[in-house]
# Entry
Amino acid sequence: MAKIKGIILDIDGVIVGEKIGFNSPDPHPDVIKRLKEIRKQGIFVSLCTGKPHFAIKSIIEAAELNNMHITDGGGVIIDPIDNIIVKKHIIDKATATEVLKMCLENNIYTEFYTVDSYVVQKSQVSDITAQHTHILQQKPKLVDSLLDESAISEITKIMPIALDEEDKKRVSKLFEPFKDKLTLSWGIHPIALPLQFEIVTAPGISKKQGAIDISESTGVSFENMLGVGDSGSDWQFISLCKYGAAPENASQELKDLVMTKGGGNAYIGGHVDENGILEILNNFLK
# Structure
C-alpha cells in the first residue's frame, strides 16, 4: 500500500463534474464524506485550482479540510478554515497596469483578483459576468475603472476571458510580450464552454510552485504525495508527486504522462461524473 501523507487534487473534472445536482457545483456527498474521512486520518487534502479560495470554500468546509489549499493558480496558498495565508504572490503594479490597459484597449473581458474578492469594470458587465458569478459563487466588486482600482489593490491574479478557441488565439498573441514578465496559462470550466479562461499570475507562480509551497509548509515530502488532475497543465504538480492519477475523462496527454510513473504509482480511475475519484482514492488508500 502506498505510504501517502498528502493529496493534491484538481477540482473541475476531478471531483466536480457537469451533472448539476449530482456533482456540480459541489462534489457528490459520497466524495465529500470520503475526503473528510481521509483528512481525519491525518492525511492532508489540498485542493488545487485556478479559482479563488472563496469559490471553493463550501467544499473545504463540508469536507473539513483544515489545511492549506492552492488557489488562484498558485497565487494564493491559504487555509480558509483557520484563516491562515501561507503565501500570496502579488503581481507588480506597473506590469498589472500595463496588462489591464492592453486588455481594455483590445475589448477583452477581464477580471482581476485579490485574496478575498474579484473586480469587474462596470462597462464590461455582460452575460459572462453572470455566468462566472455562478461558477465562483460570489458577486464581483463593480468599479468604474479597473486601472484606478488596480492602483490601490494587491493583485494576485488577472483573468482575461476569451469567447472561444478562436478568440483564445487572438488573446494569446496579444500576451506574447508579457511571457517573460508573468506566468500565463489557460483553463476551462465544463459549464462555461466555449469560454476560455486565461490565468495570469506573477512570474514563476503556478500550480507547480503551489505544490512546492504546500510541501514546504507541511513538511511532507513529494515521496509521500498523490497528485490527481484531468488536464495537461495538471502535470505541473502531479509530476512532482511519487504517486499520480487521473480520471477516465482526463486528457489523453495527461493519462499518458501519469502512466509513465509506472508500477503501483500510477492509476487511471473512472469518469468524474461517476465519482471516479472514489476509485482512485480507494486504490491508493486501501
Remarks:
- The CA atoms of residues 30 and 64 lie 14 Å apart.
- The two ends are 7 Å apart (CA to CA).
